[in-house]
Hints:
Two copies of one chain form a homodimer. The first copy, chain A, is an alpha/beta fold. Chain A folds into two domains: 33-238, Alpha-Beta Barrel (TIM Barrel), CATH 3.20.20.10; 252-357, Lyase, Ornithine Decarboxylase, Chain A, domain 1. Helices cover 27% and strands 25% of the residues of chain A. Chain A is built from ten helices and 19 strands. In chain A, the strands form three sheets. In chain A, strands 1, 12, 13, 14, 15, 16, 17, 18 and 19 form a nine-stranded mixed β-sheet that branches. An eight-stranded parallel β-sheet of chain A has the order 2-11-10-7-6-5-4-3, with helices on both faces. A two-stranded antiparallel ribbon of chain A has the order 8-9. In chain A, strand 18 and strand 19 (351-357) form a beta hairpin. The mean pLDDT of chain A is 96. Chains A and B meet through strand 12 and helix 9 of A and strand 12 and helix 9 of B.
Amino acid sequence: MNPVSELETPAVTVLMDVMEDNIQRVQAHLSKHGIANRPHIKTHKIPALGKLQMQAGASGITCQKIGEVEVFADANVADDVLLTYNILGAAKTDRLMAVAKRLKRLAVVLDNDVVAKGLSAAAVRHQGEIPFLIECDTGMGRNGVQTPQAALDLARSAMRLRGMRFEGIMTFPLKPPGASLTNPKLSAPGSLAFFREALKIFGQAGIPVPVISGGGTPAIWTVQDYPMLTEHRAGTCIYNDVMTVASGTATWDNCAMRVRATVVSRPTETRAVFDCGTKVLTSDTYTVSGHGHVMEYPDAVIPVLSEEHGVIDLSNAKKKPQVGEVIHIVPNHCCVVSNMVDEVYGVRGGKVEATWAVAARGTVR
Amino acid sequence: MNPVSELETPAVTVLMDVMEDNIQRVQAHLSKHGIANRPHIKTHKIPALGKLQMQAGASGITCQKIGEVEVFADANVADDVLLTYNILGAAKTDRLMAVAKRLKRLAVVLDNDVVAKGLSAAAVRHQGEIPFLIECDTGMGRNGVQTPQAALDLARSAMRLRGMRFEGIMTFPLKPPGASLTNPKLSAPGSLAFFREALKIFGQAGIPVPVISGGGTPAIWTVQDYPMLTEHRAGTCIYNDVMTVASGTATWDNCAMRVRATVVSRPTETRAVFDCGTKVLTSDTYTVSGHGHVMEYPDAVIPVLSEEHGVIDLSNAKKKPQVGEVIHIVPNHCCVVSNMVDEVYGVRGGKVEATWAVAARGTVR
C-alpha cells in the first residue's frame, strides 16, 4: 500500500474509517425505527461500496438511470433495485426488461400515463411484469404527481395496464411543510400531509400500499416523524459534504470524501490558486455558499472555480498556504464529484488501501 | 449513417456544418489580422476536431493539463503545443519532459519561482529545455503576475535557471480595462495597458518578447485592438454556447453543440422535466441566467437542474412540450459539457455522420 502522499493531485480520496462509520450509523438509525434502508448508489457509483452497504443491512439499492442498474447488476451488488426515474422510449424499456431478468426485483417509478403505457408495452413485449411506485411531488418542484388524488388516479389507470404491478408511493426528498424549492411563492404541504392523505384515499379505494418510500440524507435523522414510511433512500450520507454539514446533520469529521489538491499559485497576499476546479469539484453550489471547505484553512473561502483552477480567498484566513502545499477540500456536493473522475482512492492510516474504478461514472442514459 | 432520431437521449450532438463554419470564420479573422490561431482543445477534447482546426490553418494547439497534451500527442494532432498551466511536482514535470520529447515544441506558462525552479530541475534531469511564457493577470483575478514589473522580474530569474528558455507573455482572457472578475471593488488596467507597459520595460531591459499570447472566445473579434498580439487562444468558438450568444459575438445559428433530451414529465401546466441535468449540462451558470437555451421553446427557461433532471419553467412559453417529445438544448458552457460524456455525435442532414470518443475527457491531472 502506497502512502497517500504519492498520489498525484488532484485526487478524490475517501477516508475509509469515516465512510464505514457513516454506513453503520445510517443503517443503525433506520433499523432502530424499522425502516428499510435502500441507499442511493449514485453518490459513489462504486459496486464495492454498494456491497459494503448491503453487508451492513441494506434491503436493496436505489439507482437513478438504467446505466447504473446495469453496472451494479453486472457486479452482483443487490438483487432488489429501485430505479427512481420515468423510463421512456422503446430502447430504454427494452434495456429495463433485459436487466430486470437478472434481478429478483427491479421496480420503477412513474408520474404520468405516457410512461405507464410505454412500460406496459415493454412488459407485454418481453412477457414480464413491472412493479411500480407513483412518484409524488411533496414540495421539491421536480417530477411527481401534484396531489394525493392524482396519485390514486394514476395508480388506478396504470395498474389496469397489462404487466404493471402497483407497489406504492415515493417522494424525494422527504420534506417538512414549507416553501417549494423551485417556486418560493408556493407553499407545499410537505411529505407527511401528502402521504397521510394518500393513504386515506388509497384505503377508501381498497388499494393496498405496501411501499412508502422517502429519500434524502438530511431527512434520515427525522424518518421517525413519518410513521408510515417503509423504506428510505439516501445517497450523500455515505460520504457527507458541505451541504450535509450545513444542514446540521454531520460534522467535518463525518465527511469521508476529501479532494487532495496542490496550491499552484499565490498571485496576491490574499489569493491562492489550487490545481482543480469544476472538472473535479463541479460548480454545484447545492444550497451553500462558496465551492468547498478547505480543511487546513477553515477561514478561507473558495469564491470561484474555473475548469482547472480553484481560487481561494485568504482575506479572513489566519494562516496562508505556500505554493506546492497539498490541501484537502470537502466538496459542496459529493455525488457529483464521483461522476467527474475515473478512480477514487480509499485511504486508511495515511495509506491508499483501495483504488476503486467509478464503474457507473458517466451513465447518463 | 443512422438517423439522429435513433440516438438514445440524452445525447450531445454537434451540427457539423455549423462547427466547420465556426472553425473557418475564426481562422479567417485571426489570419486577416496576422495573428496566429492556437485553438484551446479543452472545449472539445476530441483529436479529430483538433486536426480539423490544424487543417484550417491553426499554428498549434493549447492544452490545460498534461493529460490533454498526452492524449493529443498520441493522436498526432499538432507538434506545437502550449500548456497554459503551472506544472508542479516531480511526477508531473517528468510527464511533461516525456511528452515534450514527442513534440517539436511544448511550451508552458508559469507565474512564480517555485514552479520555475521545479521546471528547471526537470529540464536538467531529462537533459531538455523548456520554453516558457510568463502568465499575467490582466483582470481575471486567477493565476498570473500582478504587474508588468513582476513579469519582468520573474522572466529574468526564470531565464537564468538551467534549461529554461523565455519566450514571451500570456494572459487569459484578453480583457478591456475594467473591474476584476473576482473582486468587483478592484479595477484592472486591462490587457492592452498591461502588455504595452510590459513590452516597454522588457525592451528597456533588452529582453526580446517573441510571443504575446491572448485568449478567450468573445475577444477573438477584437484582437485587432491589441496590436502587439502574436497569437490568440480560444476554445468555445468551435461550438459556441449561451455565454457566447450573450456576449453578442454569436447567434443561435452559430451554436453547433445541441444536447438532445426527452421530456419525461409534465407535472404541472407550467413545468416540464427532461432527462438530463448537471451530469450532462453541468451547473455552470457562466455569467448567464438559467441552465441552457431550449431551441424549440425559446421563451422557456431552465431555472434548476438536478443530476439527472432538467426543470423547464413554461410560464412565459407560448407553446408547451408533450411527454416523450425530443428537445435540443444549447448549453451555457460547451467546454464543460464535453467533459461529461464518453461520446459526442457529429450530425449532418439529420444523420449521425461521426461518433467521436471524447478522448481527453476526465484528464484532471
